[in-house]
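Repro case for the chain-ordering regression, as requested:
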Amino acid sequence: MAAKTLTIDGHLVSARPGETLLAAIRDAGITIPTLCHLDGLSEVGACRLCLVEIEGQRRLQPACMTMVSEGMVVHTNTPRLQSYRRQIIELLFAERNHVCAVCVASGNCELQRLAGMVGMDHVRYEYLSPNYPVDISHPRFGIDHNRCVLCTRCVRACDEIEGVHTWDVAGRGVNAHVITDLNQPWGTSTTCTSCGKCQLACPTGAIFPRGVTVGERPHASERIALIVEARKQRW
Amino acid sequence: MGQRIVIDPVTRIEGHAKISIHLDEAGNVAETRFHVTEFRGFERFCIGRPFWEMPGITARICGICPVSHLLASARAGDGLLAVLIPPAAEKLRRLMNLGQIIQSHALSFFHLSGPDLMLGFDSDPVQRNVFGLIAADPNLARNGIRLRQFGQEVIELLGGRKIHPAWAVPGGVRNGLSVSGRDQIRAKLPEMLAIALDAIGRLKQLTERYQREIETFGVFPSLYLGMVGPGGRWMHYGGKLRVIDHTGKMLIDELDPIDYRDVIGEAVEPWSYLKFPYIRALGYPGGMYRVGPLARINVCSTMGAPRADTELRELREQAGPVIEGSFYYHHARLIEIIAALERMEMLIEDDDLLSNELRADAGVNRREAVGVSEAPRGTLFHHYKVDDKGLITDVNLIIATGQNNLAINHTIGQIAQSYIRNGQFDEGILNRIEAGVRAYDPCLSCSTHAVGQMAMEVELYDAQGRLLDRVSR
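-- result from build under test --
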């Protein structure tokens, strides 16, 4: 099949047919923020950070869910996009309790890094300051919903790679939260294999190894892609 | 017709406070109060957190003495794990606390109280600050800055950063000391000791000049509480508690920190966010006690460090076996810096410091524990309860400044009464009252960590000083 040619931020780029715009943008060496996307997992287009402007289309499109097509003219970093991205990050901070200073993921956190990337120096929205419980009933891991951004990377890693689907999402809108099995303490889950892939996939300090202290949770999300790649070679 | 004098804010202390002084019709002091006007809430919002996070969270109570909270919290965590931590971790924690004592005491003596002591209580208030001190005595000011820097460097070499290192954890510490770090500390010790000995020499020369202040700054009988090690040696981490009275009689000795509640009660007053701890045996407010440098050098039998012991003996000869005046907190602070440097000299040669066995691993094996460290300002208690998984269900923190609260109030009253007569006072006198507070080096950011006793009182006075209205909740 013939390669597709498109224009990204003024550069002519060629991409494979069926490739996502996000992959083409990254192949072109352009940095674009993402949060719910994780190499090795399916796309959900939930976080809206990778929205781009495509000439001839009124609506913004998420790059991770849009396929490349011939002659596309794409802008990835317009003032409008910058403003939206900052708003998205601010809303994420306002929605739960993200306190970097005392967080197990500080220094290794994608949300923290994104806040720096989009230039968030303060949050313009009122903090909701919810009072979510911490679940450390699992012998090896803990989940702190206060730090969850609902990216669902844990849900997809558990379902698509480990294949057990322990994690899912309950509730709607601002009340949505991730759950294990039938919304029960993680330690009582009968499906969890304790593999830890959810913890690898988590972009923040929401899922962490039990017993870690400030800034101690390593960031190892790229290992999800390594696992997927390794399986392809074997099977 | 009464008059009310308000000093707001009190300067050169850590945190926010005001002092109010009520005069009677004759213009003499009727009542004084030290109001702490900050409000924090740590005891409440820590509930529900995994206890492993507590050292990192509680270290944020204070930017001056985060290490004290870190160590008390980690020690409480050791208790919840029910482990004996590796010897290297124990020694490294001690080393960091010595660095902390040095840097915080240097800040108090040189930066905060130095301007009063070296320039004079009545000197021009525009110059009476650290910049004035730099202008008047650059060498002394430089020494103070270098000493503080050294203490901070010790903290950084161990914890990776000077402020809020998340280094001590339940079960031990996260990193050891490198050989180059050890050599760096060892190389600087002689210079630092020379600075500390010079500073105490300078302070001793001021005794005659400040005779009246020495006699009126918080000279009253009180109890003293502090930590001691084996044989009654001066101790700042890992020891047992001792309480003595103003005659030197030992009321309590060998108290395990876990039993602190049997000994210490906490009262609340409507006009301050600060709680008022007292020794139960003597009731409230008769059980007033002091903590911190003065208390520690009073309760200990020996500093366990030769040059510091020489200074302590000299001070006891001059001021009595139990040193009563709050002015002597300054002397005590310098003696402790000397002792800390000497202890560091001994500790630094221990090869255990370079060990890689630093952290004991365990689950929740106890549901309640108390961790105590001697903060620069005094004995610090962290008391936690957890559920079977390790989530915090209850927190009680007793902070040094809180324990000195009664004594600080008493000191203000004493200074005000002796200097203010017939409604006559000037700026120098008000500065002495502030200096009486400063002697305790209070840290109000630390001490107003609590929630649950919302103490708030608003008083409305007319131009003549008559109380028109009072709202309290």
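Ordering looks correct now. The domain at 84-220+324-351 of chain B is CATH 1.10.645.10 (Cytochrome-c3 Hydrogenase; chain B).
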